[in-house]
Amino acid sequence: MQPAHSRPRLATRAVILLDGRLLLVNAWKNRTHLWCAPGGGVEVHSSLHDNLIREVHEETGLTVSVGEPCLVNEFHDPDGTFHQVDIYFRCDIVSGDPFGDWTDPEGIVAHRKWVTRAELGSLRVKPDSLAAVAWRDPDAPRYDPLEPIER
User: Domain 4-148 in CATH: superfamily?
Assistant: First the structure.
């Protein structure tokens, strides 16, 4: 059996659109040079949906309903042992203030923003296919193979 640090990590992420804008969060603690969809690591004995609801609430203060899966994305560190598989789901906001104050209890997400597709084009965002998936481009991938990790 492989040691835990060399096995792929599983995470869930939410694609949330509101009035034509996509919700993004900072990907790393106290940094805003890379943006991603809210979500995070899956906990054992909890469904993917329950994990995503928990992670979105922690990172944004929003409660969501989880819809259909729309993307599986993998990224890894080609020079190390890190490998993560993200499963993206379309989500709708059930409650919470999309523009209000909140604090991530884990202290990782400190910034969130709602962006148009045009604005997204000027940001560093992972995965590369996020815009196509979020706005349902006909050629958007359902599986986005191994991308190198951004630093």
Answer: Nucleoside Triphosphate Pyrophosphohydrolase (3.90.79.10)
